[in-house]
Amino acid sequence: MTALARFHTLGSQMKRIKHNDLTHYFLADHKDLPAAYLASCEKFFKSIKQQASSGKQQASSMEQLDPTIDWNKFTKELTNK
Q: 9: closest CA among 25, 26, 36, 32?
């Protein structure tokens, strides 16, 4: 029996959904999911879309390259030239 089938055989029983688990969002019918869970998923997807469309590189990724460099100062110097 697949995970999806097991989920639907629970019938009217409430099944607890773990925090940050998107499995049910993709596998279950949205009308059977709690509204708060759906809202949380939509908020997460919206934040990912905003990050992807912003085109900005996150500072943490630059700091991982070399934590000894002041990346803000470095990028300002590059743009002033």
A: 32
Cβ burial of 40 (10 Å; 0-12, 13-18, 19+) is: middle
**Start-to-end Cα distance in the chain:** 64
Question: Distance (Å, rounded) from C-alpha 66 to C-alpha 62?
Answer: 7
Amino acid sitting at position 29: D
| pTM of this structure | 0.51
Q: What are the residues whose beta carbons fall under 8 Å from the beta carbon of 17, sequence distance 6 or more?
A: 24, 33, 34, 37
Can you tell me the distance from the alpha carbon of 4 to that of 56, in angstroms, rounded to the nearest whole number? 38
What is the distance between the alpha carbons of residues 78 and 81, in angstroms, rounded to a whole number? Answer: 6
Say if CB 38 and CB 25 are below 8 A apart.
Answer: yes
Tokens of 75: 């990028």
pLDDT along the chain (81 residues), means of 10: 42 72 92 91 90 68 68 78 63
